[in-house]
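Researcher: Next entry in the queue.
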Amino acid sequence: MINVSHLSKRFGNHEVLKEINLTIKQGEVVAIIGPSGSGKSTLLRCLNLLEKPNSGTIAIDQVILNSQHYNHKQETNLRKQSAMVFQHYNLFKNKTALENITYPLIVGQKMAKDEAKQYGLSLLERVGMLAYANQYPITLSGGQQQRVAIARALAVRPKVLLFDEPTSALDPERVHEVLQVMLKLAKENITMLIVTHEMEFAKYVADRIIFMSNGIIVEEGQAKSLIDNPQHELTQRFLRQLTDEVDFEI
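Model: Structure for this entry, 250 residues:
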C-alpha cells in the first residue's frame, strides 16, 4: 500500500530525513516511535506532501510520485490516497461537528448536501459522536474534537490513514477514548501509519513498529518483539528512558 524509496528532506542545511526506505502492506498498522526531532512527523507529512521532499519516490496504492519531478495533477492524486489526523485536531471553529465533515465533501467532491449529511452522521456514529453532531468545537473536549477529526479523515475514503501524535495534546483521561476509536479502526483492515508516544498502545495495536532517530530508521520489527526485546542500542536507550523513574532532589 505504501512504498517509500530513498526519501530525503532538508530544512536549510539540516537534513531531517536521510534516504528513508519503507514498505507498508495493505491493512497493516505501523507505529513510528522515537525521540523528538528524529523526523517522525516530517516523514508523515512528506507522504501527503504537506512537506515537499528533496529527493526520493513515494508510492501509495497505484499512485507513484517522483519528488523531484511532478506536476499539480500528480500531487493531487497522491494526496487523495491518504488522510491525516493532526495533533491539534485542525477543525473549523465556525462549523459544527457535522459541518466539519460535510464541508470538504460538498465543496471538494461535489457531493449532494443530503447525501453528505447522511454520510457524515454515519461517520459520527462510527466514532461515538452522533449525539454531538450540531455542536461547535469550542463546546467539545479535546478527545471529542479528535474523534470528529478522525471521522472527517474517514469521510474521503482514504487508502491510508496518517496519525500525527493524535493523543499528545489531550488530557490523560481523554486519551483512552481516542485510542479506543483507533483500535476499532485497526480491526477493520484499514492501513494506518501512526506517529505516537503511547508505547502500550503501539505494542498491542500495531502490527509493526519503526524506531527512528536522527532522520533514519534505526530498527523495525514486530510490535511486541521490538518493545520487549529491542536489538539496537539507541532503541534500548529510548525505551529505557520512558520507563526509568526520575530521580531528582529539590
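Model: The beta strands are 2-11, 14-24, 29-33, 55-60, 63-66, 82-85, 160-164, 191-195, 208-213, 216-222.
Researcher: Noted, moving on.
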